[in-house]
Amino acid sequence: MSKAKGRVISVNESLVGAKNTEGAVINGEVAYIILEDGKRLKSEVIDVKQGGVVYLQVFEDTGWMKIGDLVEFTGLPLAVKLGPGILGSVTDGLQNPLYELAKIEWFLERGLEVSPLDNTQKWHFTPTVQKDEVVTGSSVLGHVPEKLFQHKIFVPFSVQGEYTIERIVQEGDYTIDETIAVIKDGSGNTQELQMAFDWPVKKPMPFHERSVPEKPMPTGIRILDALFPIAFGGTACNPGPFGAGKTVLQHSLARHSQADVVIIAACGERAGEAVEVFKDFPELIDPRTGKSLMDRTFIVGNTSSMPVAAREASVYMATTVGEYYRKQGLNVLILADSTSRWAQALRETSGRKEEIPGPEAFPMYISTLISAFYDRAGIEKLPDESTGSLSIIGTVSPAGGNFDEPVTQATLLSTGAFWGLSRALSDARKYPAIDRIDSTSKYPSLLQKEEVLYLLELLRDGKTIASNILLMGEKGITDESYIRYQKSELLDSVFLQQNSFDEVDGVTNPERLRLMFDMVKEIIDAPVTIQGKEGIRSHFNFMRQAFLDWNYTQLKDEKFEKQKSKLLKLVKQMGYAEENV
Amino acid sequence: MLRKTYENIDSIGRAILSIKASGVHNKELAEVIYPTGEKAFAQVIALDGEQVTLQLFGGGFGVSTDCKIRFLGKPVQVGFSDDMLGRVYSGNGQPIDGGPELMADQIRIAGPSINPVKRLIPKNMIRTGVPMIDVFNTLVRSQKIPIFAKAGEPYNQLLANIATQTDADVIIIGGVGLKYDEYHYFRQRIEDAGSKNKTVMFVHTHRDSIVEGLMVPDLALAVGERFALQGKNVFVLLSDMTQWSDYLRQVANAQDQIPANQGYPGDLYSQLASRYEKAADIDGAGSLTILGVTTMDDVTHPVPDNTGYITEGQFYMKDGYLELFGSLSRLKQQVNDKTRSDHRNIMNAMARLLSESEERVKAQKFGSVKDDYSLRLLDYRKTFQQELMDPFRFLELEDALDLCWDILSNHFKREEVGLSSELIDAYWPEKGKYKILKNSTHE
Given CB 3.0 to 4.6 Å as the disulfide criterion, which of A215, A394, A575, B139 pairs with A339? Predict the structure, then answer.
């Protein structure tokens, strides 16, 4: 197909107008604008207007562009290259590998493009089909080992209709550019296939067969696993003002979630935080695999100082990679931080296009885009009867920490779990600062349903009694209420609060979660015979102290059982060393 | 090469000028030539066919329709040379200290950001001697962090303290909308500290045009980045970024941009981020640390709000004190596990108790605080403020940590502070062990 051409007719920051001079333009295709020094700036067609006027959103800085600069259209939408070699890599929002770019320039200069996947590496390919076998799009041709698992090599998903295998290579080592198979359709037309292929980022991959998420994904974070769980294939949103602990929570999820693959989409956030992840992860061993955490991780580092148009692309790119690994039969988790930055990027472009703004100047269609994004998560039953899942956890950074703004609201409608972060809790250093009362999840917990309700009831009681104490003082309430209040405070401080910077307390596996819950239940159910507020408070202080000491001992440690029985004694009010209270 | 000169200006606004021209580049530098022969700078900010929009560094006041515009065929640059140290420049890069023009390399400003993989994880604590910073919100080399404060607070004093009491190789001061006495204060402090020969100042005062004010952070950061690439540890001080955002708003409105929140442009976040993100610890070179000032009335205002999402924390100053709540250092955990074994835990314990005491303050208004524990909490709060929150009390970190134990043991029993038995056994002071209290509330 002939490629269209055009000339620049207007420049306004990242929005460039072009006049289409030859060929037909496709909405959504990629175009390159060629500057007078020969630099090629990548852009995307976002609008086609009357009189052959096309609007391009440019993914790079538009300095030094001028009226009349040549525009070359590619005829192809913005796509991501899918194949072995994605895991363990770090790219920008357009899939340029950052480590490769750094070999060329220290700074992210314009117009640099590098092959998204390493095309020199040899992969050991084992075919699983034979000549004359019938295949179609997404049929498996064979596999190569990648990091922790066998990476399936597919017939590209875009292939339509039935083909027969004309030729398939022998088992051996091949690069992603080498042809490994030739397929032929009914009319005798042949296609050469390689191990990697492109998929347009904005087009959701069709599910082979979709089912409902209902199995909780352990995250190691107690308040989530117990009260507000996320499921394999589920979605969660995590809005909060700055400083409430979104980042620490995201990092903790990235490290400890029991997913096979974790994709971190740093979308318009601080570069330092992305760096922390990709410099630390190679050093960290995942206890479940015994291998480096980086082996299961893919990082999209499209940070806040990178050109704004690439932010939107980065979210879609991460999602497409996630869908691809779901097709591999794996459990994938995407951590998108922050979806607000993506929405703001859309707002900037919309403003330059002079579209009529909606609330807070966000474009009217923002909620549709957000819902469509979360809809790409889910559970997929694959042709070989295995299951893959894609879960998405998106952070939202609402202006002024106010959850009523359009992005938070649209996200709440599109996700299955809501973890509202609260400034009051983070000020009180009650981390994770996830609101104990207002957060919700529609997914099943690692605890029994009635156990969850039992905890939530205590928390609500505690909150009510706390406000009574505020009004009337401790003397104004009964000992009984005071004990109930102390129990809810204890539950909060030893079970819901967690020190993510501690090696032991930072992650709680399901086995330990159960032990801890049982102990908490002992405390809640134990009658307290002590009278007087001072005495009651002191009793709970001792229990808290013992419980915290227990939280910091390893499950396998001999001290673990010792501390546990010490704590139980306290709970049963036995063996107090009489302190001077 | 002869550059073409254009006449027939279409429109002149407060900061923006529009003219028909061809062959012009986006972001190109231009000269406004007055009939008297005087010149001022302008920069192309948008192109639409023949229509060129420029922002005027000298403002629109006094520009006439018979001025001419000459495009200079180069982007906006700043002169860089090692001899800049000790000098003072305006927002258009000209020396304003009466000294000579320097032979300098012209370097680009507002260049792309450094590839994240060329960054090092920040790992070096910067000791400031301010307890609220060193203990509770440790400052780390290459951090970007503003002071949030109302207009009357002594934030510039703290900024100057931090800059001159630490081990920066180079200090770059970027003053945006400085009052004359503030400018004078900075110069004086730098001289008194004997830091003049490692300092460069870029100053925009209220006499200068807002476009010059907008340029200051870019100039300061371009020069700072160049020193960092030479291997220096650079401190860039930017005061005041709220005024800078306000200038941004004025220019955006002059271009008829659709405003987002409170009239600020929709790209306020990106604009602030592209400046603050220049902070970096560069692999194979030096580092750039940014300390800013964001004046504010309320933290939910768009400028501090956007800033807080970009920077690696903030120091919140109120009534002359550095507040614990509202302050944050996102990098503190990179370093506070290597200082002393009690550092992290005592920091959190002190904060938890302080937040508990805040609740008692509320309750006190209802007259419902009578029990002994609550009264002790209120006492603790008073001591905390007196001993720790003064930004101008200089204490070494270890002394400040001892002081924290002193304060705890003066007000609480061992089991009341929520610390592990192991730590308490190691650090809980016996009577009279530390005694760093300025004025003990308990005898």
Answer: A394
